[in-house]
Amino acid sequence: MVRQGVGGVQGNTVTGRRVIVVTDSGPLIHLAAVKQFFLLNRFFQNLLITPHVFEEVVTQGTGRAGSMELRQALQDQWITVRQVDDRDVIHRLIAPNISETDAIVIAAALVHNATLLLADDIAVRTLAMREGLAVMGTIGILVHARLEGIIDRLQPVLDQLIAFGFYLDPAGRVYQDALLRVKER
Question: Which residue intervals of 84-121 are DSSP H helices?
């Protein structure tokens, strides 16, 4: 099955290459919180998570946003759990603002030659980009969904994210740029 991709990613290939997308817990939790978890399946045919992300979302997050959705996605096999065994890469990535779990997620993207890393945490995003990875977060996915006509309006979804506890300043650049991009400002 071919799915509409994000940022030029179509189905399961990018110019003949297999698309591998690794996701951190943030986009899983945040998209579930605003009832948009299905976008992950719509845009990405196969997502990888680490056991640490599973632990955070499902085990520690039992009964919270993302837990049930991730369990179902694993059962449906469009999200898979993959271990990262390269301790050298993990240790190289750990920094004062990068936890071991964050380092493992970035290492997973590097070791599995990911086309894209999904993450919301700015420190994770910054390090991943320094490592040469393409990065997208919850807001980027929502912007793409709005541009594709999958969601009718972006602003109410962004406001729901804020109400959930997602750090996003309605007067700030990220919020305003997202609305400008989809012509809601």
Answer: 87-93, 100-111
Q: In this predicted model, what pLDDT tens digit does every residue of 96-143 receive, in sequence order?
A: 999 999 999 999 999 999 999 999 999 999 999 999 999 999 999 999
Q: How many CB atoms lie within 10 A of CB 169?
A: 10
CA–CA gap between residue 90 and residue 13 (Å, rounded): 27
Q: How many domains does the chain have?
A: 1
pLDDT on residue 19: 81
Number of neighbours of residue 87 by Cβ within 10 angstroms: 10
The two tokens of residue 32 are: 């579930």
Please list, in sequence order, all residues whose beta carbon lies within 8 angstroms of the beta carbon of residue 9, skipping any fewer than 6 positions away: 19, 21, 43, 44, 115, 116
126 part of a folded domain: yes
